[in-house]
Every structure is written in structure tokens, then in C-alpha cells.
Amino acid sequence: MNYDQLKQIVLLTQDAKDLGWEFFMDEGQLKARDNTYAQDTTAFQSQEHFFEWLEEQFDKKD
Q1: Which residues 6+ apart lie within 8 Å of 32 measured at CB?
Q2: Which of 24, 27, 32, 58 has the fewest Cβ atoms within 10 Å of its own Cβ atom?
Q3: Of 59, 47, 62, which Cα lies nearest the Cα of 9?
Q4: Could you tell me where the DSSP H helices lie in the chain?
Q5: In angstroms, what CA-CA distances link 10 with 27, 37, 38, 40?
Q6: What phi and psi values does residue 48 have, to the nearest 5 degrees?
């Protein structure tokens, strides 16, 4: 992973947190919980799943 990819992940994660998502580890798996309770908790199955989910959150922010 290069620096530009890392920056993108940080910025997209920040967007998700701005929408009310909180990240945590549960049973060795990265998950995101919606603090507004509008959506179910998401458990990430892979790096690709995590990146796709972050992109979706970015799209919702606009």
C-alpha cells in the first residue's frame, strides 16, 4: 500500500465517522456500528469489502 492509498483510506474513514459510524474489533473481525441506529452493524469480510463500504459512505455524504 502506498502513501496515496493510505491517505484515501484515512479520509474515507473520517467521512464514515462523520456519518455516525464507529469502528471496533469483535472476535478478531473489524466491524462498523451505526451510532444513529439507522443501519445494522457491518462486519468486514475482506479488504475489498472494507474499501467498497468506505466508498459507499463517501457517496452518502454528498
Answers
A1: 16, 21, 22, 23, 24, 41, 42, 44, 53
A2: 27
A3: 47
A4: 3-18, 47-61
A5: 23, 23, 23, 22
A6: -65, -45
Assign residue 20 a region (left: φ > 0; alpha: ψ between -120 and 50; beta: otherwise): left
Within a 10 A sphere around the Cβ of 42, how many other Cβ atoms? 19
- Is the separation of the CB atoms in 59 and 49 below 8 Å? no
Q: What is the pTM of this model?
A: 0.78
Q: What is the pLDDT of residues 20-59, one digit of tens each?
A: 999 999 999 999 999 888 889 999 999 999 989 988 888 8
- Higher-scoring residue by pLDDT: 11, 36: 11
pLDDT band at 62; cut points 50, 70, 90: low
